[in-house]
Design brief:
The protein has helices spanning 44-47, 52-60; strands at residues 4-6, 13-14, 16-23, 33-37, 66-73, 82-90, 93-100, 116-123, 133-137. It is mainly β. The protein is globular and about 45 Å long.
Amino acid sequence: MLAVAAPAAAAGTIPFRVVAHDIAATRTTLKPFALVATSPNSAHRIVVAVPTHAAQPVLRANYRTSIVVGVFGPFGCKDGRIHVARVTQSGTMLTVHLSLKPLAAGTMECQAIYETVRVLVVPRAPLHRAPIGVTVAGP
């Protein structure tokens, strides 16, 4: 399990923590997508799509003070180079911005494509309103 704090880099950026990162339990998709859980009742959408240990932070989240976002994508072997750069809000929509680090000079990586997931915990305090949806921008 990975626990990394991401600093708010610019105005409008929402702080977050990556609390889990693993291979997803969903079928491979064509492009990245995200799911948001604003209550224990809505958390099941994320829980069924992630491995058991990645579901634990979703189930243990304090939904009075935080929301949970599951970010899924067909990143496969390049997953280690994918980074959640920031989370922003516009109205009731959140956007998770991803970036792809370049491959180190002189290295190779496999070409396999499989679905991976990152589970983010986002505090409610900086949110303007409770989000009803989330999009993914990036690779």
